[in-house]
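Support request, please re-run this one:
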Amino acid sequence: MAQIEYKDLLNAGVHFGHLTRKWDPRMAPYIFMEKNGIHIVDLNKTLNSLEQAEAALKQIVRSGKKIMFVATKKQAQEIVTEEAKRLKMPYVTDRWLGGMLTNFGTIRKSIKKMQTLEKTLGDEEMVKNIAKRERLMLTREQEKLTRVLGGIADLTRLPSALFVVDVKREHIAISEARRLNIPVFAICDTNSNPDLVDFPVPGNDDAYKSISLLTLAIGKAIEEGLMERKQDKEDQRLAEEEEAKRQSDLRSEAEAAKKQAREEAKQAKEVAAEASAEEAPAAEATEAPAVAETPAAEAAPVAAEKGDKE
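Re-run finished. Output below.
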C-alpha cells in the first residue's frame, strides 16, 4: 500500500478543518485541538482510518468488484476523474442524478440512449440526412448525457462500494448507498457526520492538495488490489493447467497399464497354446505301443487253436 507519512499529511494541509462554529459534534473523536477559531484534525486518526480504508478497498477490488468515485465539487473533479479513468473504475464528477443507484434500471436506459446517440452522430452518412437544427439538438443532448453519465457508461451492475470526497455535498449518493447496503468510504471534514459512512477518513475535503493526496492513496490501494487479482487469476490458471496435465498423465499411465495388461494376457495365451500343441504329440506317442500289442495278443489264441487241432 501507499506509505503516507505524517509529514506528507502536514504538507498537504490535511489537518486544517472548518471554523469551530461550523463543526459537527460527531467529529469530536477525530479533532486534535482548536487554533485561531479553526479545528485541527488529529492526523494519527487520519493515518489509522486511511490504512483501514485501504485494506478494505483492496479486498473488495481483489474479489473483482467495482468502486464508484463520487466528487462533484470543483476542487476534486479533475483529480478524481483522472484517477478513476486510470483505474478503469466508474465515477461521477459532474452531477449526481437522483436514483443513480436506487433506480439503476432507468439510468441504464439513459446510458443506452447516450450510446445510441453517439453511434448515430458518428455515422457520417446518417448525419448528412438529418436537418441541421435536429442535428444540433441531438449533439447537445448527447453532450449533456456524456457529461453526466459518461463516467458510468461501462457500469453494467451496481458498484460494490463508493468513495466520496465531501460527505455533506454528496448526501444523496450516500443515502442511496446506505439504502442498498453499499459500503461508503469518504473524506470527512470537521463539519461532516462520520456516522453516515462505513469508513470515514478525517481530513480536509476542500484543499486540492489534501484531496489529491488522499485520493491517490486510495487509488494506489485499489491498483494493488487489481494487481493481486491479476496474480490470483494467473496462479489459478497455472494451477488448472498443472491439474489438467496431471490428469492427462494419469490417463496416459492408465492406458499404458491397460495396454501392458492386454499384451501380457496375449503372451500368456500364446504360451498356453504352444504348450498345448507340444503336449498333443507326446500323448499320441504314449498310446502307440498299446495299439501295436493288439495283434500279438490276438496271435496267441490263434496259435493255441492250431496246436489243439494238431
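Strands lie at 16-19, 31-35, 38-41, 67-70, 91-92, 161-164, 184-188, 199-202. The helical segments are 6-12, 43-62, 74-87, 104-122, 124-128, 132-149, 171-179, 208-309.
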